[in-house]
Amino acid sequence: xxxxxxxxxxxxxxxxxxxxxxxEVASEIQHPDAVLLRSFNMHDWEIPETMRTVGRAGAGVxxxxxxxxxxxGIPVFNAPGANxxxxxxxxxGSLLSTVxxxxxxxxxxxxxEGTDAEISKQVEAGKKKFVGCELAGRTxxxxxxxxxxxxxxxxxxALGVKVIGYDPHITVKNAWQLSAHxxxxxxxxxxxxxxxxxxxxxxxxxSTRHLINAEKLQNARQGLTxxxxxRDGIVDNAAVCEAITAKQxxxxxxxxxxxxxxxxxxxxxxxxxxxxxxxxxxxxAIMVAEQVRDYLENGVVHNSVNFPEIDMxxxxxxxxxxxxxxxxxxxxxxxxxxxxxNLNIIDMLNRSRDNIACTLVDVNNPIPQTVIDEINTxxxxxxxxxx
Length: 387
Known about the structure:
Blueprint: E1 2-6, H1 12-15, E2 23-26, E3 34-37, E4 53-56, H2 66-72, E5 76-77, H3 84-99, H4 102-110, H5 116-126, E6 139-143, H6 147-158, E7 162-166, H7 172-177, E8 183-184, H8 188-192, E9 197-200, H9 214-218, E10 224-228, H10 237-245, E11 249-254, E12 267-269, H11 278-298, E13 318-325, H12 330-340, E14 345-353, E15 356-363, H13 369-376, E16 381-386
Parallel strand pairs: 1-2, 1-3, 3-4, 4-5, 6-7, 6-9, 7-8, 9-10, 10-11, 11-12
Antiparallel strand pairs: 13-15, 13-16, 14-15
C-alpha cells in the first residue's frame, strides 16, 4: 500500500487516479511515499525519510526545494501544459480588455450617479476618454514558446494579430505546433523594438529574473504594453513604472500585485488568476497523479523537472529501479550485483540528466534483498527499489 500525503487540496478527479486498494491518500499521514501539492512552500518543510517522489499540480516548482530532492534521489513532477488553455484565455482576454480600455471604462461607469437620464448624459460625455484600438494588424511579441506561449501566439495570430516569437530553447514538439505565420525575433531587445504588446511565458530562474528591465525598455517601441502572467520577478516592476512615467511604456498588466503596482494609473494587477479555472485544476491534478503513480509502480518518469525521461514497457519478470549520481561504471556495478544473485536480465534502460541517472532493470526471478544491499553499498547510489 502506497501512502500519499496531500499538502494542498487536490482535485478529486486527480485523486481518483490513485486506486484505493493500492493507495492511502490523506492530508495528514505518517511515512508518505509521495507528496502532492499546489502552492504549499516546501523549502522549510522536513522531508520524510520514506518519501520517493513529489508531484506539483501546476507548472512552476519555485515552492519546492529541487536541489534537496536531487540529493535524496527524489523526482519532482509537474504538469506542464495542463493549465495552458486557462492561461492562454486569460492573456487573450486581458489583451482584448486592455486595447478597448474595458477596465477603466467599467470603473468609470460604476461610480456614475444621478437619474437614468443624467447617467446617460455622463456616459455620452465621458466615453471619449476610453477610445481604444482594434487588435487586427497590431503586433504582439511572445517571449517563451512552451505549451502556453505557443497557444497564446496561435490564438493571437487567429485574431489577425501579427506575432513575433522568441525562445532560443523551443522544443521540436512545440515548434511543430506553432503557427507558421509567427515570425522569429533574434533577442528580447530585437523583439521589443518591433512590437506594440509583449507577453512573457518563461519560468523564473536566474537567467530570466528581470528579463524585461530598464535597459531593455530603453530600446522598446514607444507605447509598449506589457503582460506578465508567468511569474513575479520576470518583469522589473520598478523599471516598468518608471518607463510608464516617461511615456515609453503605455501600460502593464500582471497577475502579481504589490504595493508599487496597486492603484497605479496605467497598471492592471490581478490576483494570480492564471490557472484559476476548474478545468485547469482538474487537468493538473490528473496529470500529476498519473505521473506519480507510474513512477511509484513502474519507475517511469515523464514531466520531471530534475530527472531524465525514462519509460520501459514491462516485459514480464521483476523490476528494479536504481537512482544514482551520474558517475562512471554504475551500470556495470548494478549488473554485477544482479549477476551475483544468479539473475538473468530480460531488459535494461539507463538514462541521465545533469547529475542524476536512472536505471530500470527487468530480471527473470524475484530479486533478493542481497541485491538491494549490495547496490546500496556503491558510492553515489541514492535510491534502490523493487517495483
